[in-house]
Amino acid sequence: MINISEIIKIIRNQLNIEVYDFDVSYYSNNIYNMLQWYKGTGPDDFHTYTDTNGVEKITRTRAHLNMAKRVCEDHAGLAFNDNLVVNIDDNDVNNYLFGKEEVNGYLGPDFWTNMSGLYEITCALGTGAVELGIEGLKQCNDLIISNRNTTKIKLLYHNAMNIIPLTWDENRNIESVAFLHVVKEKDKISNSTYNKIYITIHNLTDHGYDIINKVIINKDSKYKLCDASDDIIDTYNTGSNIPLFRIIKLPIINNYDLYSPYGLSIYANGLSALESADMAFTTFKQEFDNAGKRIITDYSLLPTDERGNKIMDTTSLPYMFYTGYNREVQDYGAKAPFTEFNPEIRVESITQGVQTALNLISSTCGLGEHAYNFSSGVVKTATEVISENSSCYRNIKRNESALSKFMYELFKSIIYYSNKILGTGLNEEFNCSFMYDTAIVEDKTEDKKFDLELVKNNVMTIEEFRNKWFNIPRRSEDSSYIDDNKQ
Length: 487
Known about the structure:
It is built from eleven helices and 20 strands. Helix 4 packs across helix 6 (about 110-125) and helix 7 (about 270-290) runs antiparallel to helix 8 (about 345-365). It is α+β, with helices and mostly antiparallel strands and about 475 residues long. The termini are far apart. The strands form seven sheets. Strands 8, 9, 10, 11, 12 and 13 form a six-stranded antiparallel β-sheet that branches. The protein has three domains: about 5-270 and about 395-435, no CATH class; about 295-340, no CATH class; about 445-475, no CATH class.
């Protein structure tokens, strides 16, 4: 893992850029810990544990349900699916971003897939970002020149492991930031591998944002600052305080570190529940591993070799155990030459233990109390409708609000720099709204039927109905609305 303290020292001391003090251990310990849970193993001291086989201590590997990733997937699935609708009140901006009929726009066909992936990893690690990377700029003396045919603005997606906050405001909103991109390189002489860290710094100054591109070589625990390649401009100023990046954090307080600019993982306060689920599932798995039928045979029936010694090799009979209780006297304690041993499998009680742990996970991770069912050894998502008064519904709505703000600000940055660099001439004062598919948590069918009855009885107007269910503005709110009945 990259030593973030060394990176900060280089930024602060060699590049003379201000970096606020914060607890670096939160990055190196807590975020990394959340990453291990997201990968499915949990920390090393939980992934492997010590047990005994009755003779000696042995190391075992714990079974995993990987519920940390499952929770993040479900949160991302609630926010980003095929029914998400974005309404932009300016047709030119909408066509530029999404294309006519939502094809061939600036954002491209993979935008929503990438956003879903970013939101999922943000749920896991607490912080994410989208950076506007500008390619194809040329520098002539002190002038930065763009070419509409060759200059491009690309979207780069970053998770918390690649984000170093430099400065932030009183509400811990990040203002200056460094983004890392780590590449493994091979030394041509020693043939050993080392880290080549591409770093892009967005530093807010009195004259707007300075964009600084550097490379840091990490060999043998040492870090060396180098210039970027010749085709990348080392430093340029945007002349604007509008950032070329947008940070997304979950709308929950970081109770691990109240003063940290990083956000908090969706399951940070549910680690004990994640552990309980994996421990219960490990027991569930072991129950079947150890519950095979056994046949116990009397010692006197064991075959002998040419010297009369009993042959104890059971490799050809893996399910048969031999006993030696009547080694001295043939009939000592022997009730039958063969005895069946059929251990009881505690499926019901262990299943209840797994289910209890799953209920704790869904509750602590913002999905309500009964989001998952453990049935037939498989975790399934519950499908019952969740009330608008439930904690799950309120959490989802709060997350959607933060996500909408993030995407709107991202669109604003895209349009602003498309105008500034590419000369697109688009309206920068556009508005947009987002309609999320909450059919998973709301029984919309009955609500819509009820509203239709209100329209029939003239209690609700058709414009109000359209605005509520289809996000179509009322006539007074939309000057472009055309009444077909008026000629």
